């Protein structure tokens, strides 16, 4: 079977450089503006295509090592191309953050942007890893997204997906069971509340400071959202469907998102929190 362009894109999580301008890229400077002094080692967790590492290397000539841990081989390959000019100052590791292996480094700064929800419900493992890899005086800069969620545990992208599945003839109240059957957890369920995170993070770190911003997504047309979804979520939701329905599913995601924007002036808006975490004392 020939794949549509969007299906092929979703398989490799391609087009993220462009797509991430709509939402995730805004975390980069927000986080890096909190890096103080002259760090020698920075580790980015879920480093994607290496955009944060590149920005950090540009800002901080003091960095002798900028390391990325990432699960997707396609993303590691794209990051490798992007970071080639920085030679031996960069190390990219293929890793699953739900059970990361130790590295022989201590970092002055660890960053993790727009990733934690993917590690639910075993986030404590990566938090323990970070605690063990922070140099004395180091900090962990983490961003977390907080879509409103309903009684089904659906929020953010889940709502758009439910609408798109509706366009394919699947009743809204059948969607939770369809996803559960395929072991696809709604993102709204994966995302812990600020209160839950406050308690969880406090087990591992001192919470020095937090900031909040609103992430508002708007698109120029339905196709742009279709590609944003494929680049960000890949096949995560599409895997609930027979392969023959997936191309239409991605198109429907674009249409539903754009219709929402016409009604509300934006596709989505949700709070994002930046946490500055340091070694736990006491
Ligand atoms: C939304 S992207 C964020 C990428 C980048 N940090 C940014 O802010 O643009 C989430 C990233 O986390 C990676 N990821 C998700 N689950 C992972 C896991 N279990 N282990 C390692 N990386 C993972 C994905 O492959 C993807 O690159």
TrEMBL record:
It holds the Pfam family Methyltransf_12. GO terms for molecular function: methyltransferase activity. One of its GO terms (biological process) is methylation. It comes from the Bacteria. InterPro entries: Methyltransf_12, SAM-dependent_MTases_sf. Keywords: Methyltransferase, Transferase. Residues 43-139 form the Methyltransferase type domain. This is Class I SAM-dependent methyltransferase. It comes from Streptomyces galilaeus.
């Amino acid at each position: 079977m020939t794949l549509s362009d969007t299906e092929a894109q979703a398989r490799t999580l391609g087009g993220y450089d462009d797509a991430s301008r709509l939402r995730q890229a805004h975390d980069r400077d927000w986080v890096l503006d909190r890096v103080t002094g002259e760090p020698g080692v920075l580790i980015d967790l879920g480093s994607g295509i290496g955009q944060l590492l590149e920005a950090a290397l540009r800002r901080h000539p003091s960095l002798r090592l900028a390391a990325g841990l990432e699960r997707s081989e396609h993303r590691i390959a794209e990051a490798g191309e992007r970071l080639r000019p920085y030679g031996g100052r960069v190390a990219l590791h293929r890793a699953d953050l739900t059970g990361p292996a130790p590295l022989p480094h201590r970092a002055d700064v660890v960053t993790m942007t727009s990733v934690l929800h993917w590690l639910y419900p075993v986030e404590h493992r990566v938090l323990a890893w970070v605690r063990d890899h922070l140099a004395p005086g180091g900090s962990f800069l983490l961003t977390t997204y907080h879509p409103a969620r309903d009684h089904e545990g659906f929020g953010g992208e889940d709502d758009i997906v439910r609408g798109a599945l509706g366009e394919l003839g699947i009743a809204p109240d059948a969607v939770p069971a369809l996803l559960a059957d395929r072991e696809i957890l709604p993102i709204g369920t994966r995302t812990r509340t600020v209160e839950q995170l406050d308690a969880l993070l406090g087990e591992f770190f001192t919470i020095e400071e937090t900031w909040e911003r609103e992430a508002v997504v708007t698109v120029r047309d339905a196709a742009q959202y279709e590609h944003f979804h494929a680049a960000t979520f890949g096949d995560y939701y599409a895997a609930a469907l027979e392969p023959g329905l997936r191309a239409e599913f991605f198109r429907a995601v674009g249409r539903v998102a754009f219709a929402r924007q016409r009604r509300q002036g934006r596709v989505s808006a949700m709070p994002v929190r930046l946490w500055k975490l340091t070694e736990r004392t006491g």
